Amino acid sequence: MQTVKKFLSSLWQALFGDTMRAFGVVSAALLIALAIAPAKDHFSEWHGYQGRYLSLIRDRGDAISLRRRVQPGIQQTWLPELGVVDRCTTCHQGLKESSLADVHTQPFRKHPAIPHSLDGFGCVTCHRGQGPATTVAEAHYSDRAGEDPILPARYIESGCGQCHQNALTGTPQLNLGRQMLARYGCVSCHSVKLPDGTTLTASDNPPSLEHIADKTTREWIFTWLKDPQAYAASATMPNYKLNDADASDISAFLMSSSTQHAGDTATLVTASAKNVDPTAGASLYGQSFCATCHAVQNAAGNLVGGDVGPELTRIGNKVKPEWLQAWIENPRTYDSKTLMPHYRFTPQQVAILADFLKNKSDSDYGANVHLNAATPLQIAHGRKLVAELGCAACHKMNGVSKPENFAPDLSRIGSKPLAQLIFLPGMEHSLPSYITRKIKQPRGFGPGLKMPQFTLTNAQTDALTTALMALTERSQSMPAKLRVAAVRESNYQPAGHAGKLMTELACFSCHRINGHGSDMAPDLTREGSSVQRQWLDDFLKNPNTLRPSLIRRMPRFNLSDSDRKELTDYIMVAYQSPDIDPDTAPSATNTPATVEHGRQLFYSKYACQSCHIADTKTDKGYIGPTLTQVGSRLTPAWIYAWMRNPQALRPGTMEPNQNLSDEDARALTAFLMTLKSSGKQETK
Amino acid sequence: MIRRSMAYAALLLMGVGTGCKQKSAPSPALKPTAIGAAITESSGGKQVGPTGTALKDPLVVQVNDEQGAAVAGALVDFHGPASVRFEPASVLTDSSGQATTAVVLGTISGRYQLSATTPGKAHAVTLQVAETALGYQQQLGSILADKYCNRCHNPESSAERVSNYDNLEVKPHPFTEGDTLNKISDADLMAIIQHGGPALSRSALMPPYANTLSSAEVQAIIAYVRVVSDPPYRPAGTVYEQK
């Protein structure tokens, strides 16, 4: 005790013994205290990076100009509207230096070219991470509550999706993910409210099960429920991993609740096709361009055909022959909302096509399924299961109504705090890895979870994750002026008898008119200004090929003469463009000299023959429509307007706008108008 | 200090490269049952995909013995730049002598040299494979090229698109044709795309796109042409203006 006291007093004496000494010691202490802050800065991580950046640019040719733009100290981008406080540029000094394209060491790489200024949007808007942090570990990797690690590059398109609700050319993954949310029925169970107040709606049009007993057997339903992808690899219905008893009970309930559809089998031609060429079915299937919408697996196992309608590889296993005939005869009787057109086949054609499809079956499929007659107890259990699993969220059925708020709301899933998620052992602690795992193995998170197993490729899962990661808090809270609205489908409906015909022929399944319909075939909004009446009438009678390279083509409908006239008249009158005035267009008084001038322009100056065929003997262009009869097909006013600016008439068309002078456009129009059909109706 | 910052830099590069901090668990040691003498590519080389994503098709290599017969159970190790991931990185060949792995590209755009190595009898045999990663701009260029250019510039037809290449009197240059395209400067490519072939005394079959595509879109197409060219494009160094 004594010694400690003695030591302390001698220490005091040594440091503060006299005034001068005390002053010196206090000054030294003050100096040290003052030096702490600059020293911390100097030995900080970011200061090290700034030093390394300076030595990186020192030996480069443009060192002086690079050096001039270096800003020492902590840099910050503050964007209150977006909620961005970013200090990333403190270390990432070379982001905006285009001459650093050859530098591949981080943090000095140049940012790849994007359409936005980095200062205007900040970094965390797209990349996530902690903007205000000044150490790598905290900025990039922190997964503490309320914080967010850097987004892996493969989901980066989700950043675009926060503002851009429309489909962008440069974001294929995001576009695919958004389509899948609607197409795979995600939004039938989960609700997704977009920032503009609208709710995402499903686009998959799942079949109603109200009359399922008319269509198929209980055995098929059972086999399908057990594994939808075993029936058709392209099926979008997920696998609910049902056991045999449950699948059997659900099939029993669906059959017992099904009601007979009025008029479904009434007008049936039960007679099978007789005395016909065995290849007639295949050729009718081909002629009717069924493959535009339906796919069939070929011998090599590849799917051939479109994905608008269901795959038909094993259709013979699924549907009852009499239902199939009734469906081909007029699909709208069974399902008034179907995308399939009413082809107006003759009874003989219906029988041929039904026979052809009936043979598309697999004798092994469902071969060992034998179900005993269902007891009331089983039916009741099936009904309970249907309600529990939420089958009615997608399918309409008798006795079970569509459940509300069946699954968690996903409107802000992209900002879900990590602290609210339960990660499985070994999982990476980040939101995208959680979402991906949830999509890939939904039942892996615990027993009793209802979300079914989807069959998706890795690319599809990444696309869905990207679309979900775009649904953020920031996207909801940002000012409306920063948002780019989605192109909404209009509810345009053509009127009158022609309108009814267009609905029956399902024109909107392929064509778009006034913002309503699909984009598979040309937009018809201005068709009346574009084509000549006689051509349209002939085309509806027998659609011939306009674009030789296309695989998907317009099918032929057996319209009655009066229906066809009605439809032609309606299109010619209703779908006019106000910008195309037939009177101001070049008249038929073209001199042979003008026509010859136009021909020369066509073949030499503009080299149109690289994409079009004007003369089948010499031209081979295989991209644009064939022009051999264009003078009988299009109106001169349309051709002239098209020459001047194709994109104005059909946005996004691939024909380049060549900025033609008035004179050249008139000469070309005069030449093209001389290319007329020989008068006789050409056969296909 | 320097050592510490280098350690951080290494950590950062590793993190940015793999896109995640988590280290993949070491795969259980594979026990090869045979040794091959030669390794060849079956499929999956020369693919193009966006940065940071998995390539569409897996990389498949074939291990054969001296007589050219398939070797089953030989060990194949896949290697690449640090930011490229293989799932899995070590594979035993199957009964037909093939080893398959999925390739996840790195985050830097450009060409990746990958290698597949199998321990041969005397020394290891290695196969080099190149894959290309597209950044945002190049991917946009690839989408635009698909719509506007490839119908003529790509001689290959696909199920969805019939090539117009054979129908043209003057053959367009496929975008992979580096021997020709690498010699054309960015400014000249820009002029040809915007003002058509005649702008540089080339064929009029190439139409002008200045009124159809924005200059940013044309630049994106050029960026795409540069990244897929074979042999690879090496830009001239920075050009400085004279004082």
What are the main properties of this structure?
heterodimer, A: 684 residues, 5 domains, two-stranded antiparallel ribbon, two-stranded antiparallel sheet, 6 strands, disordered C terminus, B: 243 residues, alpha+beta, Immunoglobulin-like, Cytochrome Bc1 Complex, Chain D, domain 2, 2 domains, 6 helices, 9 strands, elongated
Describe this structure in words.
The complex is a heterodimer of chains A (684) and B (243). Chain A is mostly helical and 684 residues long. Chain A has five domains: 45-150, no CATH class; 172-203 and 406-482, Cupredoxins -  blue copper proteins (Immunoglobulin-like); 212-380, Cytochrome c-like domain (Cytochrome Bc1 Complex, Chain D, domain 2, Orthogonal Bundle), CATH 1.10.760; 496-574, Orthogonal Bundle (Cytochrome Bc1 Complex, Chain D, domain 2); 592-673, Cytochrome Bc1 Complex, Chain D, domain 2 (Orthogonal Bundle), CATH 1.10.760. In chain A, 41% of the residues lie in helices and 2% in strands. Chain A is built from 32 helices and six strands. Chain A has a two-stranded antiparallel sheet. Chain A is flat, with a radius of gyration of 35 Å. Mean pLDDT of chain A is 87; it is low at 680-684. Chain B is of the alpha+beta class. Chain B folds into two domains: 31-134, Sandwich (Immunoglobulin-like), CATH 2.60.40; 136-228, Orthogonal Bundle (Cytochrome Bc1 Complex, Chain D, domain 2), CATH 1.10.760. In chain B, 26% of the residues lie in helices and 21% in strands. Chain B contains six helices and nine strands; from the N terminus they run H-E-E-E-E-E-E-E-E-E-H-H-H-H-H. Chain B has helices at residues 2-18, 136-148, 150-153, 178-181, 186-195, 215-228; strands at 38-43, 48-50, 59-64, 75-79, 85-87, 90-92, 98-104, 110-118, 125-134. In chain B, the strands form two sheets. Chain B has a five-stranded mixed β-sheet. A four-stranded antiparallel β-sheet of chain B has the order 1-3-7-5, with no helix packed on it. Classes of the chains: A mainly alpha (684), B alpha+beta (243). Chains A and B meet through helix 3, helix 7 and helix 22 of A and helix 1, helix 2 and helix 6 of B.
